[in-house]
Amino acid sequence: MTTPATSQTPAVPARSRRIRPLIHLGALAQLAALGIVGTALFTVLITFLSLGVSLLVAAGIGLLFLVAFVYLLWATGWLEYERVDGLYGYGLPPLRARRSGVPGFGGWLRTLWQQFIDGPMWRGVASAAISTVLGLVVLPAVAWLVGSVVLLFAPLTGADTARIPATGIDVGGEWALPVGILGIIVSAALLLGIALLHAVLTRAILVPSREALLAEQARTAGVQRAGAVRASEVERTRIERDLHDGVQPRLVSVGMTLGLAQQKIDSDPVAAKALIDEAHTSTKAAITELRQLARGIHASVLDDRGLDAALSALAARSHVPVHLDVRVDGRCSATAEAAVYFAIAESLTNAAKHSRATDCRVVVRRRDDGTLWARVEDNGVGSARVLPGGGLDGITNRILAAGGTARLDSPAGGPTSLEVSVPCAS
């Protein structure tokens, strides 16, 4: 589940264009470092892959190397995205780790495979590999430039001959000055060409094309629409179930009780009064259930006073003690706040009904990347699963419809934790 992509290809900010020479110098410095560090990194990657494949048949020992290989690949791609975006300011989205959403060991293996075939990760690795190769060219080019500068001062030493940098060729002292100038021009041009090539290649590899952005935007819109439709179906089913199993039988009982009271009101006024009192009590209980049902459809306090106040009221009504920690500056969109609120409400309901929890903790934050993040954890028995038509299915689809992500972790024996993240502007 991903947030909607922007509609235009990211562009280099104006401030970056004004300090372009400094950006090229920074790129060359990074490439020089990558020429050393990147070579060691890719050597480790190749070693892990070779050991993993060769030792896979040896009691599965190679699997550990293959797992390390995948995670190291992801770290390499993530670092490359961060490096390039910090250098050029392309506005690249951060590389996210893939999650299958399936619990257990099988889910972890599926997550590992999805991470291995993740296209953005491989683009980051490819960019890092190309940058490493360019760095291996930058190092001798810098040495050539420095040697050419030193060659300019050869006539001052009074030596009869001088050696051309990086060639091992000696020239007469009278040729040292022109050869040094030529070396500076050529090596500087080579370094500038490498810096320009690096900018072009990283942009081509890491910055999505307009067509790719539009395709991703269309895919995301389709996924969100499907989530919204599914969430509305689950919500409708829940409302119908609550009305059919709760309020409707109670109102039928009220009607029957009042009918009995009507029959006894002349012959046995005391019994009729008792029946009326019973019907009155049942009516108040039905009104309470209707209020709770309406609150489950729309929380008016959420619109009036915000997420913090709405969650405080929710925690106060919870049958399980709730430790609430909300730190949200300002307001997010109504869609985002409603998605997070109802996800937390459903989680607390599940904790009270199914997990036999005695304590819950709710943490809500507004992160620097503009997302509203929440985590609900209880100390119950665990083993919660997302079942079609169930409450957790409704949470997942509601969060998906808002452009966010949801992750459930509920091993047998507990604890159960649910993390949701929704863009504030959704």
Report what the structure shows:
It is a single chain. The protein has 426 residues and is an alpha+beta fold. The protein has 2 domains: 8-208, no CATH class; 299-426, 2-Layer Sandwich (Heat Shock Protein 90). Helix content is 66%, strand content 9%. It contains 13 helices and 7 strands. It has helices at 14-18, 20-54, 61-88, 104-116, 119-152, 154-157, 176-206, 210-264, 269-297, 300-305, 307-317, 334-353, 391-401; strands at 161-163, 170-172, 322-327, 360-366, 371-378, 405-409, 416-423. Strands 3-4-5-7-6 form a 5-stranded mixed β-sheet, covered by helices on one side. Strand 4 and strand 5 form a beta hairpin. Helix 2 (20-54) crosses helix 7 (176-206). The longest helix has 55 residues, at 210-264. The chain is elongated and about 135 Å long. The model is unreliable at 1-18 (pLDDT under 50).
Which SSEs are present, and which pair or pack?
Elements: H1 14-18, H2 20-54, H3 61-88, H4 104-116, H5 119-152, H6 154-157, E1 161-163, E2 170-172, H7 176-206, H8 210-264, H9 269-297, H10 300-305, H11 307-317, E3 322-327, H12 334-353, E4 360-366, E5 371-378, H13 391-401, E6 405-409, E7 416-423
Parallel strand pairs: 3-4
Antiparallel strand pairs: 1-2, 4-5, 5-7, 6-7
Helix pairs in contact: 2-3, 2-5, 2-7, 3-5, 5-7, 8-9, 8-13, 11-12, 12-13
InterPro entries: HATPase_C_sf (IPR036890), Put_sensor_dom (IPR025828), Sensor_HK_TwoCompSys (IPR050482), Sig_transdc_His_kin_sub3_dim/P (IPR011712)
Keywords: ATP-binding, Kinase, Membrane, Nucleotide-binding, Phosphoprotein, Transferase, Transmembrane, Transmembrane helix, Two-component regulatory system
Enzyme class: transferase
